[in-house]
Write a structure and sequence with these properties.
The chain is an alpha/beta fold. The protein is built from 5 helices and 5 strands. Strand 2 and strand 3 form a beta hairpin. Helix 1 packs across helix 2 (76-95), helix 3 (105-113) crosses helix 5 (140-171) and helix 4 (120-130) packs across helix 5. The longest helix is centred in the last third of the chain and has 32 residues, at 140-171. It starts with a strand and ends in a 12-residue tail after the last helix.
Amino acid sequence: MKVLGVDPGLTRCGVGVVDGVAGRPLTMAGVGVVRTPADADIAHRLVLIERGIEEWLDTHRPEYVAVERVFSQHNVRTVMGTAQASAVAMLCAARRGLPVALHTPSEVKAAVTGSGRADKAQVGAMVTRLLRLAAPPKPADAADALALAICHIWRAPAVNRLQQAQAAARRTPVPARMLKGSR
């Protein structure tokens, strides 16, 4: 399974590709950051992010895209920019028919470090160890993107089984005696 992880941001949008399956050693296929100038118009910055993500999709051809779920922050401007960059990543994936998974920061930290409250240094250290890298990817946005991809690879099998069970349950007819109002 090849996953593009996206740590959305307007100034620095972390991107990282990890290849592998749960329970086996993982391989980093690429890591980087899509940067935009802070003084540029917001619409232009979003176009630059789109071009950058499209380039990563063209180069690495992932099967899935994992994006950090935007959560409420104290700074509304920051959360708006993050949400906009996140939407661009999801749009790029959707255009290609790629499944998109959203993972919360604490979910990613817990998957990679064992603690949902881990700091950026701990996440970077574990990403380095799990992917057998010589040094932690810099900046932290790049390491976070790899952590998102790792999280998705490890959690996808369980999520897929749950979704299949839910779909099967929806297809199974409910006996009339169990329907509300039936006697």
